[in-house]
Specification:
The complex is a heterodimer.
Chain A lengths: L2 E3 L3 E5 L4 E8 L6 E6 L6 E6 L3 E5 L2 E6 L4 E6 L8 E8 L7 E3 L3 E6 L1
Chain B lengths: L3 E4 L2 E4 L5 E7 L5 E7 L5 E9 L2 E4 L6 E3 L9 E3 L8 E8 L6 E2 L3 E5 L1
Parallel strand pairs in B: 2-11
Antiparallel strand pairs in B: 1-3, 3-8, 4-5, 4-9, 5-6, 7-8, 9-10, 9-11
Classes of the chains: A mainly beta, B mainly beta.
Chain lengths: 111, 111
């Protein structure tokens, strides 16, 4: 079966750095995605990792270790608008685009 | 601009009725997906399609069906709506192995 674990909730202060972890045990692996979802809205794509290491995109970075089944999303210089749910998704179909999503981490940024 | 739309955005129906939710994308993506999202949960895959005439069951497919007669549309049908199917439904599309683009969602209430 597929198992993707993320913390349910996190709180951080505006201007700070926060790391959201994701561990996975899936029958297949062909890449890991992070999505952001604001309350009442659709998820939007943030980052993608298929090889080990760090991918940086502005204030957001994502790290992957395939041997450990582990990824994290790093958010720097937190802003109030970063308050949202962050979804980790593993593409577990080696032949095409199907992904399995974790339950998401709700991040609250406080002033 | 290319987009993905869902209709209706809100639907209230009664137990036992057949309901069809529409999903239309203009990106010419080969992959299309239907998810449901319940409070406190991530996205759970209902059905997906990798191309015209191709459909596959996801992890929560019981009580739902889809058909893919063209590239742009993947309608989701609830054969006999049940209260347990009250949820927010998201449609998504992607090209090959790339990130998914999500529609705005349909909030379905089954009374």
């Amino acid at each position: 079966g597929q198992n993707i674990d993320q913390p349910t909730e996190m709180t951080a202060t505006e201007g700070a750095i926060v790391q959201i972890n994701c561990t996975y045990q899936t029958s297949g692996f062909n890449g890991l995605f992070w999505y952001q979802q604001h309350a009442g809205e659709a998820p939007t794509f943030l980052s993608y990792n298929v090889l080990d290491g760090l991918e940086e995109k502005g204030r957001f970075s994502s790290f992957l270790s395939r041997s450990k089944g582990y990824s994290y999303l790093l958010l720097k210089e937190l802003q109030m608008k970063d308050s949202a749910s962050y979804l980790c998704a593993v593409r577990d179909d080696t032949n095409a685009g199907k992904s399995t999503f974790g339950d998401g981490t709700t991040l609250t940024v406080k002033p | 601009d290319a987009e993905i739309t869902q209709s209706p955005r809100h639907k209230i129906t009664e137990t036992g009725r057949q309901v069809t939710l529409a999903c239309h994308q203009t990106w010419n993506h080969n992959n299309m997906f239907w998810y449901r999202q319940d409070l406190g949960h991530g996205l759970r895959l209902i059905h997906y399609s990798y191309g015209v005439q191709d459909t596959n069951k996801g992890e929560v497919s019981d009580g739902y069906s889809v058909s893919r007669s063209n590239t742009e549309d993947l309608p989701l049908t609830l054969e006999s709506a049940a209260s347990s199917q009250t949820s927010v439904y998201f449609c998504a599309s992607s090209r090959d192995y790339n990130e998914q683009f999500f529609g705005p969602g349909t909030r379905l209430t089954v009374l």
